[in-house]
Write a structure and sequence with these properties.
Layout: H1 3-13, H2 18-29, H3 39-62, H4 75-82, E1 87-94, E2 100-108, E3 112-120, E4 130-136, E5 139-150, E6 156-164, E7 172-178, E8 184-189, E9 198-210, E10 213-223, E11 227-233, E12 248-252, E13 255-257, E14 261-267, E15 270-277, E16 287-305, E17 308-312, E18 315-324, E19 328-334, E20 339-347, E21 350-359, E22 364-369, E23 375-395
Antiparallel strand pairs: 1-2, 2-3, 3-6, 4-5, 4-7, 5-6, 7-8, 9-10, 10-11, 11-15, 12-13, 12-16, 14-15, 16-23, 17-18, 18-19, 19-22, 20-21, 20-23, 21-22
Length: 397
């Protein structure tokens, strides 16, 4: 039996004291002359009643704590949950395979929309079931990230699905549930007034130069649930080397906050990124953004043999093995997050460009060349690596 069922049964088992029933009966038997209230007092009483009902409804949304999600929440979300800052939903739907989806509630802010949900199936939960999308008035957001945890029997699980912020003008939101052949929808009420308030919205417009251009930090939005730093790249390397955004830190009164979520997208107007951190503590006096490390590139034009360990720029490469059939396969080892650029295999029949790379992890990979000719060396034009920049920006607020 889950936490909600226990509470519901406890409430239903409560009974009024016998003395209260006797007093009510005696009061009903008594005869009292009805007193006529002036119109002004009656209107005031109705207004007071409306005010009480209005605040009661507000409390129904604000005063909610979600149980069973402790291991899934960030530090900031856990704090808000203990303070009962969630909006209760308490709706359910049963899917075609017998799985019941319970949406216990949501916590929203200007940065994200978090859905707290449970799955129950006496046989076994299908791990493909997910909350795919949120739609509503001026809202069409696909899942951004999520965490999920099941019991040992895989019959009950708790999850938090995170989406980009929804429109504050939406009154109802539809959750699109996917993973089975038949897609399902659940429409839930949404009250924007229950959202976690924004404590800081600041335009930054500061840049840090790196080897391929500039990182431009555009905006910071901080709430009691999260802090989001937004930016864009004024120029990118055409070879699409993976961005190392993990090295961008937020310093709060000198204390480092590491990003807990990283997003990057490219479009016709360039590339943008978002870094999410924990909430900024109350009473913060100084905010800084530090680019500790980011993408770097060194031209090398180095030639290395097909055995042994070689120094290339500030990095190194070890040739682990080489084999041939219709193609040539050179397996190498290197530092983590180091990628080699403009690689060719030098053979007696000329230089053969790299066809593809088979990645095993961030350090071990096999270089594949479309030739069976006898090979002598590798030529490496350049090295992508994680470069220290140690640049700090002051955020005035």
């Amino acid at each position: 039996m889950n936490e909600w069922e226990k509470k519901r049964q406890h409430i239903q088992s409560l009974k009024a004291p016998e003395q209260l029933e006797q007093r009510l009966q005696q009061a009903l038997k008594g005869k009292k002359k009805r007193k006529r209230w002036p119109v002004g007092i009656a209107v005031a009483a109705i207004s007071l009643l409306f005010l009480v009902v209005f605040h009661y409804q507000a409390l129904a949304y604000y005063g909610k704590q979600f149980f069973g999600y402790d291991a899934l929440m960030s530090e900031s979300l856990s704090k808000l949950n203990k303070e009962q800052k969630g909006q209760a939903i308490e709706q359910e739907i049963t899917l075609s395979d017998g799985t019941t989806v319970f949406v216990d509630g949501v916590i929203s802010d200007r940065n994200r929309f978090h859905v707290y949900y449970r799955l129950e199936n006496a046989n076994q939960i299908n791990e493909d079931i997910r909350l795919e999308k949120i739609t509503g008035f001026l809202t069409n957001e696909y899942m951004d990230s999520g965490t999920f945890q099941m019991n040992e029997n895989q019959t009950e699980g708790f999850g938090i699905q995170t989406f980009s912020a929804v429109s504050p003008f939406a009154k109802n939101l539809t959750i699109h549930i996917e993973g089975l052949e038949e897609k399902e929808e659940m429409t839930i009420p949404y009250q924007a007034s229950a959202a976690v308030p924004t404590i800081l919205k600041k335009n930054i417009n500061q840049t840090v130069a790196y080897d391929f251009g500039e990182l431009k930090f555009t905006e910071m939005i901080a709430t009691q649930a999260s802090t989001v730093l937004k930016g864009k790249l004024t120029k990118e390397d055409e070879r699409n080397f993976p961005l190392h955004l993990e090295g961008i830190q937020l310093l709060v009164d000198g204390q480092v906050l590491e990003p807990i979520q990283i997003g990057h997208k490219s479009g016709i107007f360039g590339s943008s990124f978002e870094l999410m951190y924990e909430a900024i503590p109350t009473g913060t006096e100084q905010l800084e953004v530090r680019v500790d490390t980011f993408n770097g590139y060194t031209e090398t034009d180095a030639e290395v043999g097909l055995a042994g360990t070689w120094t290339i720029g500030d990095s190194w490469l070890e040739v682990v093995s080489i084999r041939q059939d219709e193609k040539t396969y050179v397996t190498i080892d290197s530092e983590a997050n180091v990628y080699f650029d403009d690689v060719v295999l030098i053979t007696g029949k000329g230089d053969i460009p790299l066809e593809t790379t088979e990645m095993y992890d961030s350090e071990n990979r096999t270089l594949v060349f479309d030739t069976a000719a006898s090979a002598d060396k590798l030529r490496i034009g350049g090295v992508y690596y994680i470069k220290p920049y140690e640049k700090t920006l002051q955020i005035n607020f």
